[in-house]
Amino acid sequence: MAQILINSRMCAEGHRPICQDTGIVNVFLSVGMNVRFDSNESLDGLINEGVRRAYNLPDNVLRASV
């Protein structure tokens, strides 16, 4: 019960969601026909790196996705 109250307080203060499971990231991407990426990384790799960086931003309020 104490943990639920702590989680509730953290949520109210804007630190983290009360729910422990924030879901799975779904990326919707539109790429033009003549777009070229200046990278040797795959498109999946580039997307994963972008999501990783977004979750590590100091003002991100979500827990890391599964």
TrEMBL record:
Name the InterPro entries on file.
Fe-S_hydro-lyase_TtdA-typ_cat (IPR004646)
| Pfam families, alphabetized | Fumerase
Q: Which UniProt keywords apply?
A: 4Fe-4S, Iron, Iron-sulfur, Lyase, Metal-binding
Q: Where is the Fe-S hydro-lyase tartrate dehydratase alpha-type catalytic domain?
A: 1-66
Signal peptide location = none
Family classification: Belongs to the class-I fumarase family.
Mind listing the GO molecular function terms for this protein?
4 iron, 4 sulfur cluster binding; lyase activity; metal ion binding
Q: Kindly provide the name given to this protein in its UniProt entry.
A: Fe-S hydro-lyase tartrate dehydratase alpha-type catalytic domain-containing protein
Iron-sulfur as a keyword of this entry, yes or no, is yes
